[in-house]
Specification:
With about 260 residues, the protein is of the alpha+beta class. The protein is built from ten helices and six strands; from the N terminus they run H-H-H-H-H-H-H-E-E-H-H-E-E-E-E-H. Strands 1-2-3-4-5-6 form a six-stranded antiparallel β-sheet.
């Protein structure tokens, strides 16, 4: 049998630090990377004072205590009070971005030095994340009914259904309410999404005139400039025109788009 040698604390810390420098890193590696090991590396070696370390740990502990090692790394680059304040603010943005799923994939790993090679890079990326957080939560003005009328055109109607062409965000919010369509979201993110879609396609909403509680109560039709159609139900699931005809009775080929 091969003889196994248990690692000392110093060896463990050294290996963890080498992992921090590597290009490929996973969050799982640091699951048990507790504050004791970070303190051994940064405080016991005299790189960071114990008071500063306690401040950094307090920043991390309510979010993810395992991040304290990387916060110490950021602080060591410029051990000033101003840097400590910046770490507090930008780390809070980082955790909000993770929780709101604005930060995705490898970007969620604070220890990935290929993405966050130093604090300046981290700060630059978090400025963009903070903007995304603001537009995703900022409320837009209430729907203006005059704009709704001016921003929509009824192109089809029968006993059960109406089809509107949508030209503006107020009309999109009005006729697309109670759906999961990003272009009808009541936020500045919804506005940006509508503007982006409106540049490349014509937008139509099929709306039931009678109360319905299934996914087919409202259907969005996107017609690209090349004539290709895309259909989605109220929950934003992709549909085809045959299913739409079955559920609504509307022959989409006969509609004057």
């Amino acid at each position: 049998m091969k003889e196994t040698k248990s690692k000392t604390l110093d060896e463990f810390i050294e290996n963890k630090y080498k992992c921090c420098q590597s290009q490929e890193i996973s969050n799982e590696i640091f699951e048990n990377f507790s504050w004791q090991y970070a303190k051994k590396e940064w405080v016991d070696t005299g790189k960071i004072s114990e008071d500063d370390f306690d401040d950094l740990f307090n920043i991390a502990k309510t979010r993810n205590p395992n991040d304290v090692y990387r916060l110490c790394d950021f602080y060591f680059e410029d051990s000033t009070f101003n840097r400590l304040i910046k770490i507090r603010n930008y780390y809070d943005v980082f955790r909000q971005g993770v929780n709101k799923n604005i930060i995705k994939g490898e970007d969620r790993n604070l220890y990935n030095k290929r993405i966050y090679k130093d604090f300046d890079e981290f700060e630059y990326k978090m400025d963009d994340v903070n903007y995304e957080i603001e537009i995703s939560t900022k409320r837009v003005p209430p729907v203006n009914q005059v704009k709704v009328k001016n921003e929509s055109s009824l192109i089809y109607e029968d006993d059960s259904w109406q089809i509107y062409q949508i030209f503006g965000f107020d009309a999109s919010r009005h006729y697309g309410r109670d759906t999961r369509w990003c272009i009808s979201a009541n936020s500045y993110a919804g506005f940006d999404s509508f503007e982006e879609h409106d540049k490349s396609k014509d937008i139509y909403f099929i709306v039931s005139k009678r109360p319905r509680f299934d996914n087919y109560r409202k259907i969005v039709v996107l017609m690209y400039r090349n004539g290709v159609f895309e259909y989605s139900d109220a929950n934003d699931n992709i549909l085809n025109k045959n299913l739409i005809k079955y559920k609504t009775g509307i022959d989409l080929d006969s509609v004057n788009w």
